[in-house]
């Protein structure tokens, strides 16, 4: 069988394996794992470095005094399901398709929310399949739903469940402690 | 190679996992062939039975032009996909309504990072006229052609007509 003979040639027929062949086989063996790792990072979980200040002061608290950035665990299994107000999510920015943003879910489908500057109208009812996301920082520091409006849940890529670095903040994200009233 | 796998359940399971993941990544990032259903793209695609191929490297709206057919995630539903035609890109002015009906002269400018999509069969299509501009990030791929039925196979065309300059 042709396949068998190719395999035999790759494995080497006889004699002690040379260093080159061993290295090459190890490299090929590692390369076959790349699709599995990529799939895991896309659909199960990934460690993500947080850039920017839109979740300040909860994340990247010392943004002005050091180059250190927070590292979080981004859980990516079915991010659209069981969403709760207060959860921190990652999403594709509606204005910039190649950018992943991190925001907090403030209102869910059907909620009526009082918007902040610079949104043109003062209250919005969140349409079907959409959520309202905001950064934690002061108004104007984050490009969020107050600029681009409700976002489709299909844009969500994951949910930030744990902080990994720095060590003093290590642990689960206590999103349920966050309180942003829908209507004042 | 076969004897390398037969009789080694763990080795067999790991190889299956690797091949499944490779296939999944190929389908979601390179090329996908899938059946198309529904009346919204008549007469380009039939209501049922057509299989179409999509170039998934055009995901996130990369290299998308006006007139392209796109495979996209329907923004108001949790898990459905659709096929529609792009008629407006960021900065373009498009009609909110349907040609020949009331409201067709209401125009909006497509916002940054979005596109405007409609079906080829306007009366039977749920598209941007209902859910508004579509974020480019929801585009999964660009339709490159129809594969089945084999006798009707063809490349996708943008449907645009050159305006006679005379």
TrEMBL record, chain A:
Domain named Peptidase S26: residues: 36-116
The protein's matches in InterPro entries, at most eight in alphabetical order, are given as: IMP2 (IPR037730), LexA/Signal_pep-like_sf (IPR036286), Pept_S26A_signal_pept_1 (IPR000223), Peptidase_S26 (IPR019533)
The record's subcellular locations are:
Mitochondrion inner membrane
Q: Which SUPFAM superfamilies match?
A: LexA/Signal peptidase
Q: Which keywords has UniProt assigned to this entry?
A: Hydrolase, Membrane, Mitochondrion, Mitochondrion inner membrane, Protease, Transmembrane, Transmembrane helix
Q: List the catalytic residues.
A: 54, 103
Choose any GO biological process term that the UniProt entry carries and state it. Answer: signal peptide processing
Specify the protein's topology with respect to the membrane.
Answer: Single-pass membrane protein
What CDD domains does the database record attribute to this sequence? S26_SPase_I
Q: Which GO terms describe its cellular component?
A: mitochondrial inner membrane peptidase complex
MF terms from GO for this chain are: serine-type endopeptidase activity
Matches recorded under Pfam families: Peptidase_S26
Can you tell me which family this protein belongs to? Answer: Belongs to the peptidase S26 family. IMP2 subfamily.
Query: What is the designated name of this protein?
Result: Mitochondrial inner membrane protease subunit 2
Taxonomic lineage from the root: Eukaryota, Fungi, Dikarya, Ascomycota, Pezizomycotina
Automatic annotation (TrEMBL), chain B:
Pfam families given in the database record: Peptidase_S26 (PF10502)
Q: Which SUPFAM superfamilies match?
A: LexA/Signal peptidase
- Cite the entry's keywords alphabetically: Hydrolase, Membrane, Mitochondrion, Mitochondrion inner membrane, Signal
- Localization: Mitochondrion inner membrane
| Source domain of life | Eukaryota
Please give the biological process terms from Gene Ontology that the record holds.
protein processing involved in protein targeting to mitochondrion; signal peptide processing
Indicate the family of this protein: Belongs to the peptidase S26 family. IMP1 subfamily.
Know the name of this protein?
Peptidase S26 domain-containing protein
Cite the source lineage.
Answer: Eukaryota, Fungi, Dikarya, Ascomycota, Pezizomycotina
